[in-house]
UniProtKB/TrEMBL annotation:
GO terms for molecular function: L-threonine 3-dehydrogenase activity. It comes from Dokdonia pacifica. One of its GO terms (biological process) is L-threonine catabolic process. This is Nucleoside-diphosphate-sugar epimerase. It comes from the Bacteria. PANTHER family: L-THREONINE 3-DEHYDROGENASE, L-THREONINE 3-DEHYDROGENASE, MITOCHONDRIAL. Belongs to the NAD(P)-dependent epimerase/dehydratase family.
């Protein structure tokens, strides 16, 4: 029987690129992209598309049934900075969308689930350097609390009901195809747009704020790799630490100045600084490397070159 892959939240920063990557690999007919809004043209052309509210169980179930979906990538969520403004709405979206999919998997209506967690599961009391897979986790943001709770439920559904759910704690993700969705690491994308457009950037995080980051192609590679891995290789059913590079705003500035020497940065930290201050600076991802062969390709210099090369046309007449 022909089965399909459903991406929920397909129009976001990750969903857009994930949809296109899965479509390239499995063919357009095999992929069903969904979101509460329409996405960019390239993504919309690469898959079936359905408007779908991830909190509406009946609507989710209907699409799963109609398209014979056996695998779900649940990317819809409210991200860290926005969630602080709308705590109840963030909790509702981030938790209920997950329960719907876990319950469909428990009832054997879908076979395999990907659900992303985040470095936001860690908090001020977590060791900030080389943060271990298993450690103190006391997140202090609505978003972090929702991700940590989600991780516990994923593990629970796997242990109690045999649900094949797989998860990664993404660091801050850098990409040029779509705008970032309102997270604390958004500066690391915005800075390239501003560098090309205005030659300067006012950063909402202060100098010295080191955070774990990753180029989108690496994140997509990891997402597909963990879903491809044999079931026995997945030993962690909460969520895997995942890392590539760690840097602060001044490091991005220096790497941009190699291409745009006149580029300048100023610092005006806002409420997002207090979120960043509770997050790790670097992550120990040895379990992901050992269990399912994860390795990253992009360092900061490659990220900067790729971002500038791909965005330049947008800002030059
Ligand atoms: N981007 C990052 O740096 C990052 C880092 C760590 C974890 N994550 C996680 O990865 C996932 C995807 O992140 P992203 O950056 O692509 O986010 P995003 O905000 O760019 O995209 C989320 C998408 O979900 C959609 N959405 C919102 N409410 C919905 C609903 N009720 N029903 C259906 N769709 C809805 C939005 O329209 C949007 O297109 C999230 O779970 C996020 O927490 C992202």
């Amino acid at each position: 029987m022909k089965s399909r892959i459903l991406i929920i939240g397909a129009c976001g920063q990750i969903g857009t690129e994930l949809t296109m990557a899965l479509s390239k690999r499995f063919g357009k007919d095999k992929i069903v992209a969904s979101d509460i809004r329409e996405g960019n043209e390239m993504m919309m052309k690469s898959a079936h598309f359905e408007l779908l509210d991830a909190t509406d169980l009946e609507a989710v179930e209907d699409i799963v049934f109609r398209y014979k979906v056996d695998t779900v990538y649940l990317m819809a969520a409210m991200l860290s900075a926005i969630a602080e403004r709308f705590p109840a709405k963030a909790w509702d979206l981030n938790m209920n969308s997950l329960f719907h999919i876990l319950n469909l998997a428990k009832d054997k209506k879908v076979k395999k689930v990907f659900w992303p967690s985040s470095i936001a599961v860690f908090g001020e009391t977590t060791p900030a350097q080389n943060t271990p897979q298993t450690t103190v986790m006391e997140p202090s943001t609505v978003y972090g609390i929702s991700k940590q709770t989600g991780e516990r439920w994923c593990e629970y559904y796997h242990t109690k009901y045999g649900v094949d759910v797989r998860s990664i704690r993404y660091p801050g993700l850098i990409s040029y195809t779509t705008e970032p969705g309102g997270g604390t690491t958004d500066y690391a994308v915005d800075i390239y747009h501003r560098a090309l457009k205005h030659g300067q950037y006012r950063c909402f995080l202060k100098e010295g704020t080191v955070l774990p980051m990753m180029y989108m192609d690496d994140a997509i590679k990891a997402t597909i790799a963990i879903m491809d891995a044999p079931i026995d290789a997945i030993k962690i059913r909460s969520s895997y630490n995942l890392a590539a590079v760690s840097y602060a705003p001044e490091d991005v500035t220096t790497s941009i100045q190699k291409h745009i020497p006149e580029f300048e940065i100023t610092y005006e930290p806002d409420f997002r600084q207090s979120i960043a201050d509770t997050w790790p600076q670097s992550i120990d991802d040895s379990e992901a490397r050992n269990d399912w062969g994860w390795s990253h390709s992009f360092g900061l210099e490659e990220i900067t070159k790729t971002m500038l090369d791909n965005l330049r046309d947008r800002y030059t007449e």
